[in-house]
Design a protein that fits this description.
10 strands; four-stranded antiparallel beta sheet; 9 helices; alpha+beta; about 25% strand; three-stranded antiparallel beta sheet
């Protein structure tokens, strides 16, 4: 039980909950290990559990025309997977794939929905998190349409680094091309441009962030705007 209490503190949505709410949540959840590439949900699957990542992170991917894939959201220790349960909807809207292996807290849908009624502080945080996710999805749509691949790649690397808590990221160009919805050649050109500027170094499926401030400057403003939105809406609680 101690390990679950410690894990709960590591997720920003669960940290510092009132004692009664924290105890209620911990009583209803379990720790699970998530492996890279594990598919937690497919579109239209029944959402049986909500996940609160601790040191893992999950990509949410839209699938178009049968095989075309594009990441539109990411959830790590700052968030959760299964937010649709707040709306009473138990259908998964997107493909959910583990991008960063690690541990998460998992709670079944019925227990989670019951806790929403019993835990007003947690409920309020999750409503605010839903607002953040809606805004980030809207911003992502604009980013994908208007911003250059190099800017988008810098943003994506920063988002991944935040959740992985490491400067070393195990990523192939093929994987990045799928996540950003572009051709591999576009990722290669963008990565070369960032490496030439001394911002990253990549070799054999690994990208190392060398200059985070420079990478933030190279990124589109979507990254800093997303961080500011999260801080404004959630950190103040």
């Amino acid at each position: 039980m101690t390990s679950i209490f410690h894990a709960a503190d590591a997720n920003h949505l669960l940290a510092d909950l009132p004692t009664a709410e924290r105890d209620a949540f911990v009583a209803g959840c379990e720790t699970v290990s998530l492996t890279f590439g594990e598919e937690l949900y497919h579109p239209t699957d029944t959402v049986t559990h909500a996940y609160f990542p601790i040191n893992s992170f999950i990509s949410q991917i839209v699938i178009l025309h049968g095989d075309s894939r594009l990441e539109v959201a990411m959830a790590g220790h700052e968030g959760m997977l299964g937010i649709s349960l707040m709306l009473g909807i138990e259908e998964a809207p997107l493909l959910a794939v583990v991008q960063g292996a690690g541990v998460a807290l998992r709670i079944n849908a019925a227990s989670f929905q019951r806790l929403l009624a019993e835990c007003p502080v947690l409920h309020q945080r999750l409503k605010r998190y839903l607002y953040v996710v809606i805004n980030q999805l809207a911003n992502s749509a604009g980013c994908i349409h208007f911003h250059r691949i190099e800017e988008r790649l810098a943003r994506w690397l920063l988002m991944t680094q935040d959740r992985a808590k490491s400067d070393r990221l195990k990523l192939t160009h093929e994987f990045l091309a799928m996540m950003l919805g572009v051709r591999r050649a576009g990722i290669t050109q963008a990565a070369i441009a960032l490496q030439t500027r001394g911002l990253i170094r990549y070799h054999r499926g690994e990208i190392i962030v060398m200059d985070r401030p420079g990478l933030i400057e190279a990124s589109c403003t979507c990254y800093t705007e997303d961080c500011a939105l999260y801080a404004r809406v959630l950190t103040a609680l």
